[in-house]
Amino acid sequence: MFTFVLRALIFVVSAALGLIVADLILPGFRIDWSHWWGFVLAVVIFAVLQSVLTPWAAKVARRNAPALLGGIGIVSTFIALLIVVLIPGAGLGIGSPWWTWLIAPVIVWLVTALATVLLPPLFIKKKVGDRRDG
C-alpha cells in the first residue's frame, strides 16, 4: 500500500513540476495562479490522464503502428494537455505563439520523465534514514 501511495505522489509531483517548468519557459503556456485549486485540479487531471492514456496509446500503437511506440509519451502528454486546457476552471491555458502547442508536450514530458527517475531515490533515502533513526 505504501509503495502505491508513494508512486502516485511521485507521479503527481512530477506532473506539477512539468507544468510549472513549461509555465516558466514558454510564453504561451500559462498557469492561472490566482486560484490555487485550479492548478491542483490541472495537475490531478493531467496526472490521471497521463496514467490512463500512456498504456492505452502504447497498446494501440503496438497493434497498429509499432514505429510510433517511441513517441507515445509525448503524444499522450499532448492529448492530456489538450484535455486539461479544454476543462473550464482547470487553471491551465495554452495559446500563442502556435509552436507552444508543439514544444509544451516535449517540455512537460521531459521534466516529468526526469522527475519520476530522480525523485524516488530522494524519498527512498529519506525513508531508509527514518528507519535507521527510529
Topology (SSEs and partners):
Blueprint: H1 2-25, E1 29-31, H2 36-64, H3 72-86, E2 92-94, H4 100-133
Antiparallel strand pairs: 1-2
Provide structural commentary.
It is a single chain. The protein is mostly helical and 134 residues long. Helices cover 76% and strands 4% of the residues. It contains 4 helices and 2 strands. The chain has helices at 2-25, 36-64, 72-86, 100-133, and strands at 29-31, 92-94. Strands 1-2 form a two-stranded antiparallel ribbon. Helix 1 (2-25) packs across helix 2 (36-64), helix 1 crosses helix 4 (100-133) and helix 2 crosses helix 3 (72-86). The chain starts with a helix and ends with a helix. The model has no long low-confidence stretch (mean pLDDT 87).
Please provide the ordered H/E string of secondary-structure elements.
HEHHEH
Instruction: Please tell me the overall pLDDT.
Output: 87
Q: How many helices in DSSP terms?
A: 4
The beta-strand count equals: 2
Oligomer: single chain
Largest sheet: 2 strands, antiparallel
End-to-end gap: 21 Å
Radius of gyration: 16 Å
Helix content: over 70%
Strand content: under 5%
Q: Could you name the ranges where pLDDT drops below 50 across 5 or more consecutive residues? A: none
Shape: globular
Q: Which strand order do you get reading across the main beta sheet?
A: 1-2
Q: Which structural category do the helix and sheet elements fall into?
A: mainly alpha
